[in-house]
Recover the amino acids of this structure.
């Protein structure tokens, strides 16, 4: 099976940089994805890593180390609208995703 | 971009009644859709995989007779919560694979349906 661990909450101020970590255990690995979910809303795709290293998409970057079964999402120049829950996820063999426990990010003025 | 429409967004029902939730892919065909359930401040838990033209595949611990899934066309999957009870109150979200982005199997999610069973 799959299990993914994330910190439950992170607090940061506007303009800062925050890193959300994810460690995983999977029976097969097809890459690590990141999704953002605002309260009451649908999760939306942010980023994906299949290979080791850093992927950058605007203010968001994601990193993966397959040897350490570890990844992180880096959010730069934080804005109030970034307050949301962030989930790491891995794909199962049937193309569904298994999600981590989620990290609730609160951005303060 | 890919859009998944889910209806209703909110539903309140009495205990013992059944509720149907619809999930439609608006601008793409989805042979497979996924149904998730999310309790407050918790993660999304996969309930079942809905396959067009065949039986759904349920995750361990999910009662297939209670959560009926029908995927009659390439753009519509329905989840029916039968004989709902208060413990079934939750946020139900459907999703479909909307393609590949930089190698990622991207899931597009519906806006979710919040079910409250009185």
């Amino acid at each position: 099976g799959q299990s993914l661990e994330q910190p439950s909450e992170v607090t940061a101020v506007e303009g800062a940089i925050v890193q959300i970590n994810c460690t995983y255990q999977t029976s097969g690995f097809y890459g690590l994805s990141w999704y953002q979910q605002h309260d009451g809303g649908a999760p939306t795709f942010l980023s994906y890593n299949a290979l080791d290293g850093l992927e950058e998409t605007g203010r968001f970057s994601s990193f993966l180390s397959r040897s350490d079964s570890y990844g992180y999402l880096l959010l730069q120049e934080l804005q109030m609208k970034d307050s949301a829950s962030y989930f790491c996820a891995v794909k199962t063999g049937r193309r569904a995703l298994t999600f981590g426990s989620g990290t609730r990010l609160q951005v303060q003025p | 971009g890919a859009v998944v429409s889910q209806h209703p967004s909110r539903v309140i029902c009495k205990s013992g009644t059944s509720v149907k939730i619809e999930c439609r892919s608006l601008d793409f065909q989805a042979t497979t859709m996924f149904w998730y359930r999310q309790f407050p401040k918790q993660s999304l838990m996969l309930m079942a995989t809905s396959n067009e033209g065949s039986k759904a595949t349920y995750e361990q611990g999910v009662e297939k007779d209670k959560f009926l899934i029908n995927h009659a066309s390439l753009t519509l999957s329905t989840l029916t919560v039968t004989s709902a009870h208060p413990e079934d109150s939750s946020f139900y979200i459907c999703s479909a694979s909307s393609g590949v982005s930089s190698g990622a199997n991207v899931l597009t999610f519906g806006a979710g349906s919040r079910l409250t069973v009185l």
Notes: The mean pLDDT of chain B is 91. Residues 32 and 51 of chain B are 5 Å apart (CA to CA). The interface with chain A takes residues 32, 34, 41-46, 49, 57, 93, 95, 97, 101-112, 114 of chain B (CB under 8 Å).
